[in-house]
């Protein structure tokens, strides 16, 4: 007789070294957030209790990653750590050229400096903020072609990160000569951490290649995406995650990567591609600002930690726990009546602030209002992904973003289930006062990526 499986999906690790959290009072936090001009990026991290600002570079490294750090070789050129890193990348993404960078946006800057420029158009399912900013910085236009369900927080679809193939086809038919490449963000971070199906990737790859265009993956959360494919896509349930990842990369011509996400690094990234000429151009740009091609802005020890992280992140035990623990938070918030993007994303829960705070108009930043309230009430730091982030356009105009979201990003292997139970309890307290939360006015903003440094004040 086989035994029934246990229901509890627990952390598939135990704790090896710990960091203290500093408790603070609501009065103290109200003062601190006012001093930070209501921009949570401006807080001191010590004044945050549970930091869900990002899952980027904030994960806990494993014992074996710390051991790999000791193995790092800091030779300027030809370090053995580079070859260990390159081979670990190629094991999953067998591209001809692997160019390390200090983080994902450096890979984006180099790629778009090489192929972007005025008059060019770069489509994606949804560009992440730094990707969009790096495209626009070259004078090119970044456009988002995610499927309609991907823009509706309440629509249920297993792959809300998919690209609208019809819109891609028409864009290429009308303006093909202006399109240097197609990007696909997996998972689709700005659209709710939603996955892209293998079927859709095949579709995008076929269309791109029929038009003679390369396809690049923005692959930060490739392992979470592959797990969703295994769980949700017909015929994929028996496959190993590395095998799915290799199929994803075989459909593309290159990738940009922030190694601060699924590769479990505290820093790092890379650009990988097959095109020899473009790789030569990119390496020359790399040398200008990042460093020699065998370290590219990283220390040898970082390269070794990433090589080990890549082996760990494709573990089925890890991914089962990771995806379940995110859904655990989303399910609990839903039970409180706090509507979230459905289904839950891989790395984060996205609260629909527009639905929650209908009394705050989009350009008074309902997402910012909710994020400030979560901090004031419980010391939780989250991130607005709405009109504060995306409401200003390159031509200087301002208009509401497609969605007004607050992202609770969950760092990898860092917080436990009781931390998340506390987060849910804070959310419950905020629910009780939600109708009284004020909107915000942006007082000062920079020309690009305004959400990082803008200052705000509450209205009324
Ligand atoms: N692409 C995606 C999909 C990302 O989520 C990020 C970073 C980047 C590119 C840029 O990588 O930070 O290493 O330069 N996302 C972080 C976040 C910052 O909080 O979602 P980076």
Biggest sheet strand order reads: 2-8-7-6-5
- Output the CATH class name of the largest domain: Alpha Beta
The overall strand count is 14
Query: What is the CATH topology of the largest domain?
Result: Aspartate Aminotransferase, domain 2
Main sheet attributes: strand count, strand direction, barrel closure: 5 strands, mixed
**Beta-strand percent range:** 5-15%
- Output the helix-strand order: HEHHEHEHEHEHEHHEEHHHEHHEEHEHEE
The CATH fourth-level homologous superfamily of the largest domain: Type I PLP-dependent aspartate aminotransferase-like (Major domain)
Mean pLDDT: 96
CATH architecture label of the largest domain: 3-Layer(aba) Sandwich
Helix/strand/pairing class, anyone? alpha/beta
Provide a short characterization of the protein structure:
Helix content is 40%, strand content 12%. It contains 16 helices and 14 strands. Ligand F0G binds next to helix 4 and helix 5.
How would you describe this protein?
With 460 residues, the protein is of the alpha/beta class. It folds into two domains: 26-55 and 315-458, Aspartate Aminotransferase, domain 1 (Alpha-Beta Complex); 63-313, Aspartate Aminotransferase, domain 2 (3-Layer(aba) Sandwich), CATH 3.40.640. It has 16 helices and 14 strands. Strand 3 (121-124), helix 5 (129-137) and strand 4 form a beta-alpha-beta unit. Bound molecules: ligand F0G. Residues 54, 56, 103-105, 128, 130-131, 185, 189, 218, 220, 258, 260, 269, 409 line the site of ligand F0G.
């Amino acid at each position: 007789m086989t035994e029934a499986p246990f229901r509890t999906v627990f952390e598939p690790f135990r704790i090896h070294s710990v960091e203290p959290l500093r408790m603070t009072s609501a009065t103290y936090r109200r003062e601190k957030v006012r001093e930070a001009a209501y921009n949570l990026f401006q807080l001191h991290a010590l004044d945050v209790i549970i930091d869900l600002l990002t899952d980027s570079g904030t994960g806990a490294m494993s014992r074996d990653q710390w051991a790999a750090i000791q193995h790092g070789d800091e030779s300027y050129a030809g370090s053995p750590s580079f070859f260990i890193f390159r081979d670990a990348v190629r094991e999953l993404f067998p591209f001809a050229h692997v160019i390390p960078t200090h983080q994902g946006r450096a890979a984006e800057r180099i790629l778009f400096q090489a192929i972007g420029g005025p008059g060019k158009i770069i489509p994606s399912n949804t560009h992440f903020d730094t990707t969009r900013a790096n495209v626009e910085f070259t004078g090119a236009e970044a456009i988002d072609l995610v499927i309609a369900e991907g823009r509706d927080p309440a629509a249920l679809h297993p792959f809300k990160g998919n690209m609208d193939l019809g819109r891609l086809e028409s864009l290429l038919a009308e303006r093909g000569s202006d399109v240097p490449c197609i990007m696909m963000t997996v998972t689709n971070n700005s659209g709710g951490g939603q996955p892209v199906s293998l079927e859709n990737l095949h579709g995008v790859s076929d269309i791109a290649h029929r038009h003679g265009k390369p396809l690049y993956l923005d692959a930060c959360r490739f392992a979470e995406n592959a797990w969703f494919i295994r769980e949700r896509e017909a015929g994929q349930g028996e496959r190993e995650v590395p095998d799915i990842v290799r199929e994803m990369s075989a459909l593309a011509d290159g990738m940009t990567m922030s190694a601060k996400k699924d590769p479990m690094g505290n820093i790092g990234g890379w650009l990988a591609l097959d095109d020899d000429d473009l790789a030569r151009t990119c390496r020359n740009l790399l040398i200008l600002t990042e460093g020699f091609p065998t370290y590219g802005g990283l220390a040898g020890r970082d390269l070794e930690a990433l090589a080990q992280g890549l082996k760990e992140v494709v573990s089925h035990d890890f991914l089962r726990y990771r995806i379940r623990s995110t859904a655990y938070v989303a399910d609990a918030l839903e039970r409180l009546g706090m509507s979230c993007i459905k289904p839950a994303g891989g790395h984060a829960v996205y609260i629909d602030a527009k639905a929650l705070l209908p009394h705050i108009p989009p350009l008074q930043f309902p997402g910012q209002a909710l994020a400030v309230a979560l901090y004031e009430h419980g010391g939780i730091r989250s991130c607005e992904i709405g009109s504060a982030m995306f409401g200003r356009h390159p031509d200087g105009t301002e208009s509401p973003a497609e969605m007004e979201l607050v992202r609770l990003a969950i760092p990898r292997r860092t917080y436990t289930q009781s931390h998340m139970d506390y987060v849910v309890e804070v959310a419950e307290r905020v629910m009780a006062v939600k109708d009284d939360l004020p909107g915000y006015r942006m007082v000062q903003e920079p020309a690009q990526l305004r959400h990082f440094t803008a200052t705000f004040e509450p209205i009324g």
